[in-house]
Design a protein that fits this description.
Helix content is about 40%, strand content about 15%.
């Protein structure tokens, strides 16, 4: 079979399974309102949980940074791309989250890949929650270490894997808040299990940072757990993009020597680091926004409990509604879009077969009227 035939066959299979992905350009897509082809929609698909992507102070910080530093970094941080703006952001993050060091990365995907690739060796074992993000699982699969996955949030299953003989080191991987189910990991029990066997714990808190814990310090702070490696990303509650790894001085120095994603990638623009520093301050003083978000979550769950759809036990901004079949999920999303609601149909292979869903994400910018209108539309469209 030729390259072309293989590609055509796999694309045809995706279309036949109703799992073919299509991007749609919009004029504005990160806030409460999404504008596409001139039409306005209530946006229930954004990860901008606190509404900071359109925060005037953060926008001004980026503009001021661009005026001072230009619009690009000019190279890797190991060459000319590391600026005072990057350094200040790293210092602020490490102090806020209680770690000796923070290292900035261009994306959460890159941060996860870099850490696992740099650390894992042939004799090591990686134990990852089965529902961990694709960036974590892919890095583990491509590393020379052995990858074993444990049942979602199942600490006993993890303990059994940790107890098996291992010549090297063991790295336990999980998320603070899972991106497709919205549920939270039992981080205290997972951390205890890892440390009882001398393993390290890596937590990707992309969907917890900024939202959970005092001052939005995230899931680990909320549950009083300090993992050996904490990954925080800036494309969700921070409202921007990028990521950071929080770690010890020694691990930071090691990653600066051996993390190829850090060494051989152009650094994020200094202006972006300026915006992220402003976003960090907004998050630290964002108790009012977090309270509004909690109210919206509670209101949605009260109404969604009466829907003929599966409602996952999530107390976070991610509220998946399980529909089941791909075609039915696509149809429901399309009907809701006709009514002015933008929701995304999530289908396999992103989620398990038979669990296609509408991934509803709530933000502090949604009003109670927005939430009630969505619930009314969902009741109407699922009545039959």
């Amino acid at each position: 079979m030729s390259w072309q035939q293989r590609i055509e066959q796999q694309l045809a299979q995706r279309r036949a399974d109703d799992s073919f992905r299509v991007r749609q350009a919009n004029e504005r897509g990160s806030g409460r309102l999404l504008i596409s082809n001139g039409r306005r929609y209530l946006n229930f698909s954004s990860n901008d949980y606190l509404g900071l992507s359109l925060h005037p102070g953060i926008i001004r910080a980026w503009q001021k940074g661009a005026e001072q530093y230009g619009v690009g970094s000019g190279g890797s941080g190991h060459v000319t791309g590391y600026s005072r703006a990057h350094q200040q952001l790293e210092e602020a993050l490490s102090g806020w989250l209680g770690y000796p060091r923070a290292l900035l990365f261009i994306s959460g995907f890159a941060a996860n890949q870099a850490v696992i690739t740099a650390l894992a060796q042939k004799q090591d074992r990686i134990l990852a929650d089965r529902l961990s993000h694709a960036s974590l699982l892919e890095a583990a699969m491509l590393s020379p270490a052995q990858l074993r996955r444990f049942a979602h949030n199942d600490v006993r299953a993890l303990e059994k894997l940790l107890a098996a003989a291992c010549e090297g080191q063991q790295l336990v991987i999980t998320e603070g808040v899972f991106s497709m189910d919205g549920d939270q990991a039992p981080l205290g029990a997972i951390a205890a299990a890892a440390r009882a066997r001398g393993g390290w714990l890596l937590v990707d808190d992309a969907h917890g940072i900024g939202v959970a814990g005092e001052e939005g310090r995230g899931s680990c702070h909320q549950l009083r757990v300090k993992p050996d490696l904490l990954i925080v990303t800036f494309g969700k509650a921070f409202g921007v993009s990028g990521a950071a790894v929080l770690c010890s001085d020694e691990v930071a120095d090691y990653l600066l020597q051996f993390a190829r994603h850090l060494i051989y990638s152009t650094a994020m623009p200094p202006a972006q680091a300026c915006a992220l520093s402003a976003a960090l301050e907004a998050i630290r003083h964002g108790d009012e926004q977090r309270a509004r978000l909690r109210d919206n979550i509670a209101a949605f769950r009260r109404g969604a409990a009466r829907l003929p759809l599966g409602l996952i036990d999530s107390q976070t901004a991610i509220q998946p509604l399980i529909v089941g079949e791909n075609a039915r999920t696509l149809g429901l999303a399309a009907r809701l879009r006709e009514r002015g609601f933008w929701l995304t149909a999530i289908r396999p292979p992103t989620v398990p077969v038979g669990s296609a869903r509408l991934r509803v994400t709530l933000t502090a910018e949604h009003t109670r009227e927005d939430v009630d209108a969505l619930l009314e539309a969902l009741h109407d469209e699922t009545r039959e």
